[in-house]
Amino acid sequence: MDLHKPGTIRVTCAPGLVDYLRREVEDLGYRVNSSQLTSLEMTGTTRDAMRLNLFLRTGFNVLHLVAKFRCASPDELYKRTNALPWDEMISPDEYLSVVSSVNTPTINNWRFASLKVKDAIVDRVASAVGRRPDSGSKRENFVVHLYWKGDRCELFVNTTGRKLADRNYRKIPHKAPMQETLAAAVILATGYDGAWPLVNPMCGSGTLAIEAALIATGRPPGLLRSNFGFMHHKAFDADGWKTMRIEAKKIRRKARIARIIATDIDPTAVEAATQNAETAGVRHLIDFAVCDFADTPLPSEAGIVVINPEYGERLGEVSELERTYERMGDFFKRRCSGWTGYVFTGNLSLAKKVHLRASRRIEFQNAKIDCRLLKYDLYSGTRRTPP
Ligand SMILES: C[S@@+](CC[C@H](N)C(=O)[O-])C[C@H]1O[C@@H](n2cnc3c(N)ncnc32)[C@H](O)[C@@H]1O
Predict the structure, then answer these.
(1) What is the pLDDT of residue 2?
(2) Which residues of the chain have pLDDT under 70?
(3) Ligand 1: does its nearest atom lie under 6 Å from the Cβ of 224?
(4) Which of 49, 136, 194, 300 is most buried, judging by how many CB atoms fall within 10 Å of its CB?
(5) pLDDT at 173
(6) Residue with the nearest Cα to atom 14 of ligand 1?
(7) What is the pTM of this model?
(8) What pLDDT does residue 368 have?
(9) Ligand 1 atom closest to residue 178's alpha carbon, by position in its atom list
(10) Given strand 95-103, what is the order of strands in its sheet?
């Protein structure tokens, strides 16, 4: 099994992000063969998989196809999987985990399918080299994905391991943090590239500001991680990876990066965000402050303001938040003339309380909640919607 030869690569993502992912993959010079709600497919080698892992901001996992076959029973799954040359891919000293997505009348238990695949792989390695790899649920090392739909099975090696959303900089999450891949997509949706100021009141753990800084510098997020699934494959090209990282570190935005300002009313949030920015290596690009969002200092040069307020789960919370959303509208209207405002929220009735006309409503999903990124063009005559 030679994954250095071009084969099928499937890149997965969260619902709603596939268009951003497609753009990123195409910007890296690849052709997308097909896309679905939460994944796209392209043709590539192990080297391409490493590159995708290093550069992608909005993807979850980069999966490399090992085999696809028809399968009518768990025993057949074992036999077909065991016939594949896993001993060429995984060393007996490695740790294996199997993740399954199963939608077939044949079985109703994905755990059983995972167990069959795991047994087939470790038995294959044991019969070839006399020892079997350890296995379990930790997705840190050699990870295999099974998709079993109807009578069709696909087996992939996961070259990512833990999701790419886990960038490794958010050591302190604070409350209701946005997933890093979603934050990156939100920033990409605004068209931000670092040329103009970006202000992020209600910054929480700082994810939006940090992703913005990474985008502005052109710094590949994969540089922040030291572990990927592909490092646990027998054919891992350690020298190729080292060279790729050295080249990626040289990427520097030539033009000046305008200031990024992030504030929150909660001092522990600002402390967490500052630490996280330090870990991400972008602390020098972000000015942090503790204040009510409406007192956020704005640079004289106009730019974009992105706010991710709480959306409230309980009734009391929602009625308290109504006032906050109204105040956000006032803040936009009074202080942000000439700027472009964005509000990311999962509560569309609360969004109405901003009382400004949104010029765009960009759809997203956050933890299964339908969300919108609402864009407000804030010129001095910005119209209020009736309260
Ligand atoms: C949904 S969280 C933001 C999460 C953030 N996007 C992240 O990724 O971590 C909302 C934040 O708004 C802050 N907040 C609530 N009311 C505020 C106010 N009046 N002024 C400033 N910040 C406020 C909270 O402390 C909280 O950190």
Answers:
(1) 65
(2) 1-3, 254, 314-316, 380-387
(3) no
(4) 49
(5) 72
(6) 202
(7) 0.95
(8) 86
(9) 8
(10) 32-35, 39-44, 7-12, 62-70, 152-158, 142-149, 95-103, 134-135
180-218+257-378 CATH pick, 3.40.50.300, 3.40.190.10, 3.40.50.150, 1.10.10.10 = 3.40.50.150
What is the model's pLDDT at position 174? Answer: 76
265 lines ligand 1 (CB under 6 A): yes
For residue 264, the CA-to-ligand 1 centroid distance in Å is 6
Residue nearest to atom 12 of ligand 1 (CA): 202
| Closest Cα to atom 5 of ligand 1 | 204
Domain ranges of the chain: 7-158, 180-218+257-378
Query: What string of DSSP letters covers 118-159?
Result: HHHHHHHHHHHHS---EE-S-TTSEEEEEEEETTEEEEEEES
pLDDT of residue 3: 64
Rounded CA gap, 162 and 174, in Å?
Answer: 21
Q: What is the pLDDT of residue 5?
A: 82
Residue 110 region, left (φ>0) first, then alpha (ψ -120 to 50), else beta? Answer: alpha
293 lines ligand 1 (CB under 6 A): yes
Q: What is the CATH number of domain 7-158?
A: 3.30.2130.30
Q: How far is the CA of 191 from the centre of ligand 1 (A)?
A: 23
- For the Cβ of 269 lying below 6 angstroms from any atom of ligand 1, the answer is yes
